[in-house]
Amino acid sequence: MQILTYLPSILIHSFGYDRLVTRKMPVIPRLKVETGEGKKVILAADPDSISVTGPQHLLDALDGIPTKSRIINRMNGSFKSRIPIECPEYLQTNQKRVTVEVTISGKQVTSVIPEQSGKKGAGDTGGLKEGG
Fold first, then answer.
1. pTM higher than 0.70 for the full model?
2. Residue 126, by phi and psi: left (phi above 0), alpha (psi -120 to 50) or beta?
3. How far is residue 114's CA from residue 20's CA, in Å, rounded to a whole number?
4. In 30-43, which positions are buried (b, 16+ CB within 10 angstroms) versus exposed (e)?
5. Given CB 3.0 to 4.6 Å as the disulfide criterion, which of 8, 27, 83, 112 pairs with 45?
6. How does residue 83 score in pLDDT terms, banded at 50, 70 and 90?
7. Residues 20-73: pLDDT tens digits?
8. How many Å is the Cα radius of gyration of the chain?
9. Cβ proximity of 31 and 70 under 8 Å
């Protein structure tokens, strides 16, 4: 048998061959943090991107490499957590975990009662008026 001509694009798609490439891909933190009302949650991965090796057409289809999904309940303060990444088995990376910093910001509403200066008299209501 003798091959007279071949078309590389057909050969690649027919047999699943593709060029292996290494790219720096962003890490996508997948955390759901439940906080008090009016709070803002900011997620930042460290490192924010990792080197990933795999078939070029697969890397082209990805926006980034996600962390494992986590739900964190009733948090009011900022914290850091080491979370595994979810790298598909057909891709390779040396990074297995990243540190995700969770910053919780926003105003916490607190009631403040101003102090009254001076002494209270017998009929003094502390600045409050009685209804009538």
1. no
2. left
3. 68
4. bbebebeeeeebee
5. 27
6. very high
7. 899 999 999 998 888 877 888 889 999 999 999 999 988 999 999 999 999 888
8. 29
9. yes
Token pair listed for 55: 């078939």
Query: What is the rounded CA–CA span in Å between residue 73 and residue 35?
Result: 7
Query: What gap in Å lies between CA 15 and CA 97, rounded to an integer?
Result: 33
Token code pair at residue 59: 């890397």
C-alpha dist (Å) from residue 68 to 29, 44, 46, 55, 120: 8, 14, 15, 22, 61
Matching residue, tokens 């008090």: 36
Encoded tokens for 65: 């490499």
CA dihedral in degrees (74, 78, 80, 86; nearest 10)? 60
